[in-house]
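User: I'm putting together notes for a lab meeting next week and I want to include a structural view of one of the chains we've been expressing. I don't have a solved structure, so I'd like a prediction I can at least talk through. The sequence is below, exactly as it appears in our construct file.
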Amino acid sequence: MSTLLLAGLILVPGSFTMAAAGTDAATPASVDVTGPWAGTWAYRNQSRGAGTANATFQQDGQKLYGSLTMFGPGGTDYTVVGVISGDEVRLSQPTFATLTVKGNEMSGILDGWDNATITLRRQ
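Assistant: Thanks for the context. Below is the predicted structure for the 123-residue chain, given as structure tokens.
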């Protein structure tokens, strides 16, 4: 993921952390995403690039913690925080995202200056 994309998303990291820590999802988690995941990502503006991704998540009830590594243009390692509601994973740091889990796959949109799609598969 591009440094520019993340720069706009982490300007106020404290507010994102508080949002994740203080948010109780309306629906209990119906999925367990604990463990390693791998897949692909691509900017919606395809001229910006695409790449592969690896993630490792830990889940405590509805709370999600972990790491996400984006390989490709400007990719790097990120610590992620979020909540799980039903079959949705909602990331709140370092980027906002809503990923839908279907069996051993999750996919969705990473919000930012130049949104990206991501699909991850359980390893």
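A couple of points you could mention at the meeting. The beta strands are 35-43, 50-60, 63-71, 77-85, 88-93, 96-102, 105-111, 116-122. Confidence is low (pLDDT under 50) at residues 1-25.

User: Perfect, that's what I needed.
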